[in-house]
């Protein structure tokens, strides 16, 4: 078991993990990450969000952060230099979408500067405090270029997403793998891409290993990252199914309770936890 004193790298997901229910980083969390930086910890944010969206959030930490975005399809340095990029081929995406899709499901293609979607979804817009990464309404029947960073589906009915997942994998399992970042959010990426692969690329560049990393997550797109880290921690607000999938991992406080900051303050920095107001 990795000793916490050997931890040199802090890795965190954003939504439902580092971010509070208002989709923001609390002032307390910000102060803890600034202290971690002052003590020479490497900080990595690994998210399913698009890099333009995520950059606006991590800038509020006011410390250098490596950013793994779109579940590993993009890596950016603290100076916002693109270190790695991967796009799904247009034919692969087109084949994946060539299935019956329930009209209640929102379809999104992550592009470089916009996200193309079949419908307005105010709940998705609410995840962006400031709209840095804009939606573009499109008719997929008329779209010519399906090339994308990743494919994203959202629906309040989880079972409809499960049915869609099975239909897409029946056609495209050799090219794609999937993850439920939330029960209402289904994502498809290239089979070679996930957060753990991208994080390992970051750490190799920075001179660290995954054994030296502590990671925090709440979704099934975090499974590889949590499993590969020296210490993986599951948020208290994560779905029960994730906790059952990784029963050997510790469950900590929720994102509403500053769970990431609480753990880092008390276990890594050896500080008394002060709840965020």
Automatic annotation (TrEMBL):
Q: Which cofactor does it need?
A: Mg(2+)
What is the residue range of the signal peptide feature?
none
Q: Which UniProt keywords apply?
A: Hydrolase, Magnesium, Metal-binding
Q: Name one GO molecular function term.
A: metal ion binding
What the entry lists under InterPro entries is as follows: Cof, HAD-like_sf, HAD-SF_hydro_IIB, HAD_sf
Against SUPFAM superfamilies, the record matches this protein to: HAD-like
Return the CDD domains for the record. HAD_Pase (cd07516)
The record, for NCBIfam families, names: Cof-subfamily (TIGR00099), HAD-SF-IIB (TIGR01484)
Q: Say which family it is in.
A: Belongs to the HAD-like hydrolase superfamily. Cof family.
Name of the protein this chain belongs to: Cof subfamily of IIB subfamily of haloacid dehalogenase superfamily/HAD-superfamily hydrolase, subfamily IIB
């Amino acid at each position: 078991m990795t000793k916490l004193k050997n931890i040199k790298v802090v890795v965190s997901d954003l939504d439902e993990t580092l971010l509070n229910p208002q989709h923001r980083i609390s002032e307390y969390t910000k102060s803890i990450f600034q202290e971690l930086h002052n003590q020479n910890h490497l900080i990595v944010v690994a998210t399913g969000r698009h890099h333009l969206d995520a950059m606006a959030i991590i800038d509020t930490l006011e410390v250098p952060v490596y950013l793994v975005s779109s579940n590993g399809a993009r890596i950016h340095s603290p100076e916002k230099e693109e270190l790695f990029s991967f796009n799904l081929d247009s034919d692969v995406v087109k084949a994946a979408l060539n299935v019956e899709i329930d009209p209640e499901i929102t379809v999104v293609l992550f592009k470089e500067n916009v996200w193309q979607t079949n419908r307005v979804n105010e709940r998705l817009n609410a995840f962006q405090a400031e709209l840095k990464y804009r939606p573009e309404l499109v008719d997929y029947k008329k779209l010519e270029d399906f090339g994308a960073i990743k494919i994203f589906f959202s629906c309040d009915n989880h079972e409809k997403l499960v049915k869609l997942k099975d239909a897409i994998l029946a056609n495209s399992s050799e090219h794609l793998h999937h993850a439920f970042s939330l029960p209402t959010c289904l994502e498809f990426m290239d089979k070679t891409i996930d957060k753990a692969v991208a994080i390992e690329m970051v750490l190799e560049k920075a001179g660290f290993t995954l054994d030296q990393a502590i990671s925090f997550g709440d979704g099934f797109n975090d499974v590889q990252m949590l499993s590969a880290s020296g210490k993986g921690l599951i948020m208290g607000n994560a779905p029960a199914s994730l906790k059952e999938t990784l029963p050997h991992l510790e469950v900590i406080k929720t994102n509403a309770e500053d769970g990431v900051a609480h753990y880092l303050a008390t276990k890594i920095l050896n500080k008394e936890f002060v709840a965020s107001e």
